[in-house]
């Protein structure tokens, strides 16, 4: 064959292989961005089997393994990417490798500072939920949500903790409008709030306001003098006489910078930029000064991290408001390959809250709880990012699910305390589905008279309904029914079978389509 023709065929063959491989790579990247990490891994591994393997393959496979919590493999592929791609952003790559290295070491030694806790109840929804602020000894929380309400856009809600379950949130109508608003901080007594919003009719970009709660409700928010400009002022956080916030005003270092103002003789001073150690050419936001008065937590997409926004901390080390230690990425568990922000540490317990759009959530952004282990109490825990906060599943009409581990004393209809955890899971799930009309049914084994068992099973079902109502569920959405020994699921001839037959079940009777349509329209 003519050497020239052979060369041409070779070029076309290589180009075809490259194009095929490029397609696998881009599809893998697409699935990664959609949060389907298993599919992304599958396609990227297929692309690695082709003739042409680019450094990008290793980068996206490494990021995918981070999302899948396969940290050793992630470290391996990100390292290869660093070695082969001389044009890589070395700061970003080194930051990822450092975070992975630290997490791998923490997993070996069992010294994880942060572990994910669980928020039971109705805080999170299919819409964005963020900006948590806890008060009243941790029993109440303000947060911002885009969930369905009479008022549109982002509104301020309050939720109360009842028996370990966050009950149904209440819209704070005094502070909510048809424009975006968010509560950023409360004074220690809980009666003064600092807000972001557009409460004035001529407000264009959003400003920072304050308000007081009285016996008649919250006062109309008032614009804070000396803080606002014609640019964006957002994410206020107040610690004693200090106010931190973000702004894109002129003279900053990037798209959105962090500033601080001090209250002197009742007036807020001219805001000072926190300087180039904290601020980058990109976006810094959601500042939180810890209760030690010197450790600043904030979100940034400008400092090297794992995803879009990561959460960092920095310590004030000098007299100037520009004297800070180099920001430290809080690492895996806190941060993911998605956006993580709104760090807020509770002053009442070793717990912090964050907002994240990680793929395990219910909506665009959800609120997560972090358990913070004091250094002397750090113990080994497996690092697991669970699927969203429970074992219940979405159900259709007439489907039945057994609530496991619900216990009563013999011949009694009083719930034992060992039942509460399982029931709380069910409460949390039902709060996410207020459109469900349900039947709570009680069942017994065949020991004893049938009529007596029928009555006992009804009383036990009623006890569960009563528990659900106490936790904040709508009594109008539930009925109780006893079936006695009529519907066994196992053989009553054995102890094991009889134990299975003594059960409580949930059955979906109806789904309020009108409720769902209202949410969809919103």
Structure characterization notes:
This protein is an alpha+beta fold. The chain has three domains: 3-109, Serine Threonine Protein Phosphatase 5, Tetratricopeptide repeat (Alpha Horseshoe); 114-377, Neuraminidase (6 Propeller); 400-521, 2-Layer Sandwich (60s Ribosomal Protein L30, Chain: A), CATH 3.30.1330.60. It contains nine helices and 27 strands. The protein has helices at residues 3-34, 37-48, 55-67, 71-84, 90-109, 420-431, 450-470, 495-501, 513-521, and strands at 114-116, 129-135, 140-145, 155-162, 165-166, 170-171, 182-186, 192-197, 207-214, 217-218, 222-223, 233-239, 242-247, 257-264, 267-268, 272-273, 284-289, 295-300, 310-315, 328-329, 340-345, 351-356, 366-372, 400-403, 436-443, 478-484, 503-511. Strands 2, 3, 4, 5 and 6 form a five-stranded antiparallel sheet that branches. Strands 7, 8, 9, 10 and 11 form a five-stranded antiparallel sheet that branches. Strands 12, 13, 14, 15 and 16 form a five-stranded antiparallel sheet that branches. A hairpin with a 5-residue loop joins strand 17 and strand 18. Helix 1 runs antiparallel to helix 2 (37-48), helix 3 (55-67) runs antiparallel to helix 4 (71-84) and helix 4 runs antiparallel to helix 5 (90-109). The longest helix is centred in the first third of the chain and has 32 residues, at 3-34. Residues 5-18, 378-388 and 518-522 have low confidence and may be disordered.
Average pLDDT metric = 85
Helix content: 25-40%
Total number of β-strand segments? Answer: 27
- Major sheet details: 5 strands, antiparallel
Q: How many domains make up the 3D coordinates?
A: 3
Amount of beta strand? 25-35%
Low-confidence stretches: 5-18, 378-388, 518-522
Rg (C-alpha, Å): 27 Å
- The termini sit apart by 68 Å
């Amino acid at each position: 064959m003519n050497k020239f023709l052979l060369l041409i065929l070779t070029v076309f063959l290589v180009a075809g292989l490259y194009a095929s491989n490029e397609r696998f790579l881009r599809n893998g990247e697409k699935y990664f961005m959609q949060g389907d990490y298993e599919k992304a891994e599958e396609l990227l591994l297929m692309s690695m089997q082709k003739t042409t393997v680019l450094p990008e393959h290793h980068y996206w496979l490494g990021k995918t393994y981070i999302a899948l919590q396969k940290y050793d493999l992630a470290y391996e592929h990100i390292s290869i990417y660093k070695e082969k791609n001389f044009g890589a952003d070395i700061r970003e790559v080194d930051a990822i490798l450092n975070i992975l290295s630290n997490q791998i070491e923490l997993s070996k030694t069992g010294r994880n500072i942060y572990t994910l806790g669980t928020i039971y109840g109705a805080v999170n929804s299919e819409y964005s939920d963020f900006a948590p602020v806890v008060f009243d000894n941790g029993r109440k929380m303000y947060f911002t949500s885009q969930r369905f309400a009479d008022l549109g856009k982002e509104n301020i809600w309050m939720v109360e903790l009842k028996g370990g379950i966050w009950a149904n949130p209440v819209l704070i109508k005094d502070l909510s409008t048809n424009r975006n608003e968010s509560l950023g901080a409360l004074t220690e007594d809980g009666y003064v709030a600092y807000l972001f919003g557009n409460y004035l009719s001529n407000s264009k970009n959003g400003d920072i306001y304050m308000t007081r709660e009285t016996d008649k409700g919250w006062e109309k928010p008032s614009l804070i003098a000396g803080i606002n400009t014609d640019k964006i002022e957002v994410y206020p956080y107040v610690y004693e006489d200090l106010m931190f916030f973000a702004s894109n005003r002129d003279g900053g270092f990037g798209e959105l910078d962090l500033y601080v103002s001090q209250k002197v003789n009742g007036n807020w001073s001219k805001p000072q930029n926190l300087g180039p150690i904290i601020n980058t050419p990109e976006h810094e936001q959601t500042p939180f000064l810890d209760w030690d008065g010197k450790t600043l937590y904030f979100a940034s997409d400008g400092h090297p991290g794992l995803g879009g926004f990561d959460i960092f901390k920095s310590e004030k080390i000098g007299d100037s408001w520009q004297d800070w230690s180099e920001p430290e990425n809080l690492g895996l568990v806190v941060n993911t390959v998605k956006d993580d922000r709104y760090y807020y540490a509770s002053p009442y317990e070793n717990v912090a809250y964050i907002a994240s759009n990680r793929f395990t959530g219910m909506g665009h952004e959800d609120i997560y709880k972090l358990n913070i282990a004091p250094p002397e109490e750090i113990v080994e825990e497996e690092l697991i990012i669970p699927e969203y906060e429970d074992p219940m599943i979405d159900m259709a009409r007439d489907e039945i699910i057994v609530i496991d581990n619900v216990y009563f004393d013999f011949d009694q209809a009083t719930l034992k305390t060992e039942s509460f955890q399982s029931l709380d899971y069910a409460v949390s799930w039902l709060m996410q589905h207020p459109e469900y009309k349900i039947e709570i049914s009680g069942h017994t084994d065949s020991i004893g008279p049938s009529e007596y068992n029928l009555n006992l099973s009804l009383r036990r079902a009623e006890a569960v309904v009563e528990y659900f109502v106490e936790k904040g569920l709508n009594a109008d959405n539930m009925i109780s029914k006893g079936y006695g020994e009529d519907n066994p699921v196992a053989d009553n001839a054995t102890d094991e079978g009889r134990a299975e037959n003594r059960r409580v079940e949930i059955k979906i009777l109806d789904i309020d389509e009108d409720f769902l349509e209202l949410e969809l329209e919103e």
